[in-house]
Prior knowledge:
By secondary structure, the protein is an alpha+beta fold. Helix content is about 40%, strand content about 20%. Strands 1, 4, 5, 6, 7, 8, 9 and 10 form an eight-stranded mixed β-sheet that branches. A two-stranded antiparallel sheet has the order 2-3.
Amino acid sequence: MDNLASLRDQVLTAAAQAATVADLDEVRVAALGKKGQLTGLMKALSGLDPEARRERGQALNVVKDEVAAAIEARKVALEEAALNARLAREGVDITLPPRPEASGMIHPISQTMDEVIAIFAQMGFAVAEGPEIEDDFHNFTALNIPPEHPARQMHDTFYLPPQADDTRYVLRTHTSPVQIRTMQEQAPPIRIVAPGRTYRCDSDMTHTPMFHQIEGLVIDKSTHFGHLKGCLIEFIETYFELSDVPVRFRPSFFPFTEPSAEVDIGCSRKGGELRIGAGDGWLEILGCGMVHPNVLISCGLDPNEYQGFAFGMGIERIALLEYGIPDLRTFFDADLRWLKHYGFVPLDMPTVTGGLSR
């Protein structure tokens, strides 16, 4: 037993004196490794008679637990000390002035999002948000999207691995689930915009697997399609800062609205340059319509009492139009030269009354 106590003291002293995690690991291996001293004593128990084996084994287990606890405690202390030393070594002196050449810029997507929110906030819309990982009900079923709809197919949607109960979650394909959650949680009247990231299996000059949308929703007892047209025309004229933008509403189909329409704005492509305004061309920028009665029913609202409209647009799409950016994929290249050219001055927040930043 004296030898065991001496070994314990020796290992505890070595652990306490270890200066680094590597040194401490050498102490651990020497004592508790496959060929360690305590491990060898444990293997030697097989040669003792039962009574001596039990007594010796109990004493060895006590020493083994004590040594393991001491080594673990020392390891935590060494790691904490190493972290503190690294933080002190890599600290940034915030009293130093910034380098002019390293000044940050606001990304066009962030700026466009702020501009759009500022316009709709002026109209009385509140901002609503929701999770980017959605269940089938909120992303599809509640929006009147049938099971056989192409949007549900795996080649269009990012599905997560199935849960234990076979539930499949998806990366939301639009921000429309935020509308569903809002209608479930709030009593009308409702007037919200829902900005955020969305995901679809698509990638080319005008599509990326992750992109940004902003959708709007109005629910009350008297809203009609004329209100929808007036709201969107006011937005288009304010965003593009033009008072005479030709706007047309083309009949379309969306499962979650009826009637549905796509909104086009007038443009000119003379000289190979795209200009928003009066011209001989049209450019589609968003979709809209009156909320389908089935969507209202899915959210617990009576379609005989409530009605409303919804709309949605891609943030990247309207940013491309406004800033003349030719390729959507450059938004996500993390190129500081591109950001310096297309970026915006920090803290220059857009407001309708103060002016949208351009």
